[in-house]
Predict the structure of Protein kinase domain-containing protein.
Amino acid sequence: MADNDDEREWHTVEHSLTQFTVPKRYQNLSPFEYNSHDIVTYATDTNTGKKVTIRKVLKSFNSVARAHRTYRELKLRIHLNHLDAQVAQLYDVFTPEKDLNNFATLYLVENYVEYNLKEVIYSNVVVTEDHIKMVIYCLLRGLKV
């Protein structure tokens, strides 16, 4: 994971409701998905050729409660970040702001997954005992130090 330094080149992708300012290595941003906590886009990492998910965390530091929530989520994602665990892999964390006084935007770059657990739970797919065992195994594997 990298911090913001002058060596990164940035580009801004405009969308009707927001803009993403990301390092140039992330190209072909689309489509955008919105919820109350963040905006998600998909991109290609030109350094690896892999498809990634980029999350723009909204209002990360507007209140103490939001700042705590953002910190907890980031800490948990870093702790669960094991390559052999089948949970979201955190590839990069960055902000386009150049100084601490202007720090307001936080981006998380993760591996792209076609389906997430929420989508599976709310789908019409029958979740078997084997599925539940696999999910629990993956979560526990992510906790292994």
About this structure: Residues 10-143 form a domain with the Phosphorylase Kinase; domain 1 fold (CATH 3.30.200.20). The mean pLDDT is 85.
